[in-house]
Specification:
heterodimer; A: mainly alpha; 0% strand; globular; B: mainly alpha; two-stranded antiparallel sheet; 65% helix
């Protein structure tokens, strides 16, 4: 392998691995705060699946802990969507719906392809189907529940909409049909939202200069604080093993 | 007047039959307990047996739920991805244990909502240990090794508890707890053999968690109000002090192999007794924590209440959606779903079954 293909491969691995790592971390913040015990179990379960995926992916690029704990904010390649703070439960569910639908489509394609991600994707796609189902069921309950929950679900889908465009910015080294994926994603999410008495938001799917920004290491302000918390202990003991 | 007198006589006769039936049920119950049989939800049981079990199982469930907090406190700061995965899985298990235990309590005719309400209003307690703070990463290991270790010592005998649903829940829970306990031990071992700073962190955590862990076995035998009756009913199999002694004897060699010391200058092997002697527990601290004056009592219950209150709209949405789905699925004539508003309904006047059912169940 030439240096440049190797760099491309690493960038691709980091993109997918960081998505899983960062969203897992956000879901981990829910532990002890969920609205009902069953959701303590479900959110932790999803967080664990994602962390498992992150560990496999990051290990493809190097040492998982070095990559998770010793990179600065600007070196992370995750989508801005997954780093968004949890907000209320509707916000978390909207983020899950957007991302798990994307991940299901992505991993389904990767599982069928010849690339380096096929083995991981084949295993992960089963987990991701569960995540998507969980998000879908809650979108229906909140969207078509009470007036208050409808309002909150609506606000959440709208607030996160501008982070959805970056999901379909092609990632070099990830060999899938990006445009086809966008269409399938719009159809799937649109269908769930309609059944939840909501609709696809109308605003732009990206901020003025933010399309694909996360993939280039440009993040939103809350992300640095999240990393500070995540990395603090590891960085306080250089070279230690845990 | 004659009618009233007849009524009176009939009632007296009925009460007489009730007393006779009561005595017969009690005899069947006592014989079942004596024969180490399991009491099941539909069996007759003394009211006090039922209420003791509700109290104990509910408080056990509450402890699992509140116990998530001190550990969840470190999920976002876990120092390696492997440790983070282990910790998340553990906290998830605890929520699952809470669910098993609330289900077991519900077989006694109470509802999860009712029990949670009692937790939130301070009418039911949870284990005093979770009112201590997790100040460093090593505390996660100390909780696994000592707190889960003490819990297992307490809970393994409960796998043989006379009440079937509780005993079966404990079998499942103990398997997972012993896994957590080994993980906690292994975490401390990694720290103890790590850098001097890590070793110091591990020792400090053990110093802070040792005594509170010993308090988990409850007050000394001569001050334990529920013990005698619980042992007679075979809810409890060993006294608080017996279990505490067993725990100390298990921990001493484990501490040695960890390369850590236990913070008790009076801890010494007693050849004559075949047990370790250990120092006096600060019971003043224990009672203070139990009364609500521990380091984190306020914080723990506030967080639990906040999660519950802030989640109310989510639960209401789920109920409203389920209601709509039921209506949509229903034929036009319609029938009301008895189950849909069943949770939390008072069932205090159980057992509601017929004498036949009770007789059959125990026969």
């Amino acid at each position: 392998m030439t240096a440049s293909t190797s760099e491309t491969a690493t960038a691709a691995v980091l993109a997918l691995g960081d998505d899983a790592l960062v969203l897992s971390h956000r879901l981990g913040e829910w532990a002890g705060h969920a609205p009902v015990l069953e959701e303590e179990v479900a959110l932790a379960n999803i967080a664990l699946d994602l962390l498992g995926q992150a560990r496999v992916l990051l290990s493809m690029a190097g040492d998982e802990d070095e990559l998770a704990y010793l990179r600065e904010e600007r070196a992370f390649r995750n989508l801005q969507l997954v780093e968004q703070p949890n907000g209320d439960f509707a916000h978390t569910i909207a983020r899950q719906l957007y991302f798990s639908t994307y991940q299901r489509l992505l991993y389904t394609q990767l599982a069928e392809g010849p690339g380096p991600f096929a083995p991981l994707a084949a295993k992960a796609v089963k987990e991701v189907e569960y995540h998507q189902d969980h998000a879908e069921q809650w979108t229906l309950r909140l969207g078509d529940g009470t007036d208050l929950s409808h309002e909150r679900m609506l606000r959440a889908t709208e607030a996160l909409w501008r982070f959805t465009g970056e999901m379909f910015q092609p990632v070099e080294g990830v060999d899938v049909d990006w445009e086809g994926m966008r269409a399938a994603w719009l159809e799937s999410v649109g269908d769930v939202l309609r059944r939840a008495t909501l609709a696809l938001p109308e605003g732009p799917a990206s901020g003025a200069w933010t399309a694909g920004a996360g993939r280039q290491g440009l993040h939103t302000e809350s992300f640095g604080r999240m990393l500070a918390e995540m990395q603090h202990l590891h960085r306080s003991h250089p070279g230690a093993t845990w | 007047m004659a009618t009233a007198a007849a009524h009176h006589t009939a009632r007296a006769q009925a009460e007489g039959r009730d007393e006779a039936a009561q005595a017969a049920y009690e005899a069947v119950f006592d014989a079942a307990v004596a024969a180490d049989e399991r009491i099941e939800p539909r069996d007759w049981m003394p009211d006090a047996y039922r209420s003791t079990l509700v109290r104990q199982i509910a408080q056990h469930a509450h402890s699992e739920i509140i116990g998530m907090q001190p550990e969840a406190n470190w999920i976002t700061r876990a120092p390696s991805l492997r440790r983070k995965a282990i910790l998340m899985a553990k906290v998830q298990d605890e929520a699952g244990h809470g669910l098993y235990l609330y289900s077991a309590a519900e077989t006694l005719g109470t509802g999860r909502d009712e029990l949670l309400d009692k937790l939130h209003t301070g009418r039911q307690k949870y284990s005093s240990i979770f009112n201590y703070p997790t100040l460093t990463w090593a505390d996660v290991g100390a909780i696994g090794w000592l707190v889960d270790g003490a819990a297992i010592t307490n809970q393994v005998p409960l796998c043989r508890c006379s009440y079937g649903p509780y005993a079966r829940a404990m079998v499942r829970i103990c398997k997972e707890e012993s896994f957590h306990q080994r993980q906690g031990y292994e975490l401390l071992l990694a720290l103890s053999r790590g850098t001097p700073e890590q070793h110091e962190m591990a020792q400090d955590a053990v110093n802070r968690w040792w005594w509170p862990s010993l308090m988990m076995f409850g007050p000394p035998d001569d001050e334990s109000s529920h013990s005698a009756q619980s042992m007679a009913w075979k809810i409890k199999r060993h006294s608080n002090d017996e279990l505490r002694q067993r725990f100390v004897d298990i921990c001493v060699p484990q501490a040695e192999s960890l390369g850590l010391t236990l913070p008790d200058p009076d801890l010494v092997w007693n050849e004559e007794r075949g047990h370790h002697d250990f120092g006096a527990i600060d019971w003043t601290e224990f009672w203070e924590v139990l009364k609500g004056n521990g380091p984190c009592n306020e914080q723990r219950i506030t967080q639990r209440r906040r999660a519950h209150d802030q989640g109310a709209w989510v639960r209401e949405a789920a109920a409203a959606y389920a209601g709509k789905q039921a209506t949509r699925a229903e034929p036009p004539a319609g029938h009301t779903d008895q189950q849909s508003n069943g949770t939390g309904s008072p069932q205090g006047d159980e057992p509601a079954g017929t004498a036949d059912e009770h007789g059959k169940a125990r026969a």
